[in-house]
Specification:
Blueprint (H helix, E strand, L loop, with lengths): L2 H9 L11 H14 L2 H13 L5 H8 L3 H13 L3 E6 L2 E6 L1 H14 L10
Antiparallel strand pairs: 1-2
Helix pairs in contact: 4-5
Length: 122
C-alpha cells in the first residue's frame, strides 16, 4: 500500500494508527493552535515561561503596552484553551503556564510527524 493509500485508509477510519487523531482530538488541537498562533498571545506565553512564577495583568500591560481590556482578552483566550491558569497573589491574580497542557501540545505535534531514524529527508 502506498503512503497516499495508507493515509486515505486512516482518514476513512479503516486503518487505526496510534498517530492518527480522532475528530475530537483534532478539534481540540486546532483550537489550541489558533489561540497560540496569535502574536500577542505567543509573546504572553513567552513572558510567562520566562517569569516562571507568574505575571500579573498590570505587569503584562506595562511590558506589552496594551490596554487592560486587551490584556484580559488575551489571557481569557489562553485560559479558555487550558494553557494558562491563575493564582491569587495579593490584590491581583498571577497568571502561570499550564505545563501539562504544553506537554500535551508537544506530544500532539510529535505524533503528527513521528521520528523515523531509518529514513532521511530527500
Amino acid at each position: 500500500m502506498s503512503g497516499l493509500e495508507t493515509l486515505a485508509a486512516r482518514l476513512a477510519g479503516e486503518s487505526p494508527d496510534e498517530y492518527c487523531m480522532d475528530g475530537s482530538q483534532t478539534l481540540r488541537f486546532v483550537r489550541i493552535l489558533k489561540v497560540v498562533a496569535e502574536p500577542t498571545r505567543l509573546r504572553i506565553i513567552s513572558l510567562l515561561a520566562e517569569a516562571g512564577d507568574g505575571i500579573t495583568p498590570p505587569d503584562l500591560k506595562e511590558v506589552l503596552g496594551l490596554s487592560q481590556p486587551a490584556i484580559w482578552h488575551h489571557l481569557g483566550m489562553l485560559r479558555g484553551a487550558g494553557l494558562v491558569s491563575r493564582e491569587k497573589t495579593g490584590a491581583w491574580r498571577a497568571h502561570i503556564l499550564n505545563h501539562e497542557a504544553f506537554q500535551q501540545l508537544a506530544d500532539d505535534l510529535n505524533s503528527l510527524a513521528p521520528m523515523r531514524s531509518a529514513k532521511k529527508p530527500r
